[in-house]
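Reviewer 2 asked us to include a model.

Predict the structure of this chain.
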Amino acid sequence: MPWVTLVGAVVGALIATASAALLDRSRWRREQDDRLAGARRALYGEYLTCLSQARNDFRSLARDQAMDLAERERSARDSFAPCYGVRYQMSITAASNVFIASENAFRRLRDVRDLAAAGTLAGDEAYSGGRAEYEAALEGLRDAMRSDLGADRELIVVR
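Predicted model (structure tokens):
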């Protein structure tokens, strides 16, 4: 009879150890997911900020009729340069659907940069069209980011 008690104790210990291991693994996985989501949230914000700053600079260039072409080109390229580093970070950290949308927005903004650098003014149809394409790509990027981060999920209230 004492061996039955010993076997019961061992089985109980094994169950407790396995349960603890599963809980620890689950907690570790949840913490990993939280860290990844936090890193992505920060990166997405940085990328949107970088694109926005460059877009505002291009708007200023497109409104400046007095700037010479060489200065305009230099200013446009300097304004867009910081976006490249964040773009490369996006390529390794962002979810694939977000990265695809980020590349589209990047390329559309690069088109706007090229128009501003070439001296196209804000009132020109080409500039307005390029800007509209960028805004549409940016909206797609924001939607992909929100989806990836779960920003549109409804909160579940537990009572």
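The helical segments are 2-63, 69-93, 96-117, 125-149. The longest helix spans residues 2-63. We have added this to the supplementary material.
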